[in-house]
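Reopening this ticket.

The earlier resolution said the output was attached, but the attachment link was broken on my side. Pasting everything inline this time so it's all in one place.
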Amino acid sequence: MPWRDGTGPPWWHGKMKGCGYRLTVPRHAILDVLSQTKEHLSAEDIYLAVHKVYPAIGLTTVYRTLELLVQTGMVFKFDFGDGRARYELSEGPQSIGHHHHLVCTGCGRIIDYTDFIDEEIELLRKTEKGLSKKYNFKITNHLIQFHGLCGKCN
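Inline output:
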C-alpha cells in the first residue's frame, strides 16, 4: 500500500516481514535514520537522531534493535578501532553497494570506496576460492578495512 505522498514503502518493509518480524516504530525509526545518511553512525548517534522524533524510544531499545537488524542482514556492524561500533544499511536505493573502507588512524575519517582495481578483484577472487576449498566453506560476503593515515594526517 502506498504512503500518503504516493510513494511505496521502503525496501525494509518486505525484508522484515520475510524474516518473520514486525516493523515496529523503533525498527522503522532506526532504519529511517540509517537510510538518510552516508555516515557510519554509532548506536548513540542513532539514538540521538531517533530520540528527537520519538522521545519514548530509549538507548537500550536502539541497541537491541540494531543487533536484530544486524542478525537479519539489513544492517552492517563495523569496528573501526575507535571503541564504538558503527552501523550502515546493507542495501536499498541509497546504498553504495559492496564497498571497502579506508580508516584514518589519525583523525578517524572513514572513506568508502567501490572503485576497485583489477588486481584487487583478482586477488579477492583467488583468496575466496582458496579459502572456500581449504575449509570447505561457502563465502557469501566479506568486509575489508585498511587502516592508515589520510592525506591531511600524513
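Reporter confirms the inline version is readable. DSSP finds five helices and six strands in the chain. Residues 1-6 have pLDDT under 50 and may be disordered.
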